[in-house]
Design brief:
- This protein is of the alpha+beta class.
- It has three helices and twelve strands; from the N terminus they run E-H-E-E-E-E-E-E-E-E-H-H-E-E-E.
- Strand 7 and strand 8 form a beta hairpin.
- The longest helix is centred in the N-terminal third of the chain and has 11 residues.
- The chain is elongated, with a radius of gyration of 19 Å.
- It starts with a strand and ends in a 7-residue tail after the last strand.
């Protein structure tokens, strides 16, 4: 079984999910799960505390496989092939090939987990510049684990988002105007 994906889209899929895998977690949590179905590939990863799902278009067969977060070099490559050969998934980009032995069993029900969360009542939506949010969260440092907890407060969709860490440390991020 084989699928062909645009190289830029494949990189986006892997980059959007690789930080959600766990080096020390259960076996399948160490992989990105790819489901190729009817022209749409879903990449999913979870580590027990968070989950990520990304989608892209592809050409080829319907199948599922696991890949590691390691990627072949994509410079000058237009397409990536993912092949399932026996108990191995092969990621082929030009002359580079990365193989991954497939773990046994079914992947976690990520689609159901996410669907269940999305069905819950939404108490509001706030737009925020992701760079500003990441910078604010990365700036939180502390000696103890308790000091590294980010407490996020949202008063309204037009008021600044307040991020607290420790006793007195505060970061403010102005929200962006969005249409919901």
């Amino acid at each position: 079984m084989k699928a062909i994906i645009d190289a830029i889209e494949f990189k986006r899929l892997i980059d959007g999910t690789k930080k959600f895998t766990s080096v020390y977690g259960a076996n399948k949590m160490q992989y990105i799960h790819l489901r190729f179905e009817n022209g749409e590939v879903r990449a999913a990863a979870l580590d027990g505390y968070r989950a990520s799902v990304e989608y892209a278009k592809y050409k080829g067969d319907n199948f599922t496989c696991y890949v590691k977060t390691t990627m072949p070099k994509l410079k000058g490559i237009n397409e990536v092939a993912v092949e399932l050969v026996g108990d191995r998934a092969l990621v082929i980009a030009g002359e580079d090939i990365i193989g991954c032995k497939q773990p046994e069993g079914e992947f976690y029900p990520v689609d159901k987990i996410i669907a269940d969360e999305l069905e819950k009542e939404n108490i509001g939506v706030v737009g925020v510049n992701p760079t500003f949010l990441i910078d604010a969260l990365k700036s939180i440092s502390g000696i103890t684990t308790k000091d590294k907890i980010a407490k996020i407060e949202i008063r309204s969709k037009t008021e600044p988002i307040i991020i607290r860490s420790g006793e007195k440390n505060v970061k403010l991020i102005l929200p962006m105007r969005i249409e919901v």
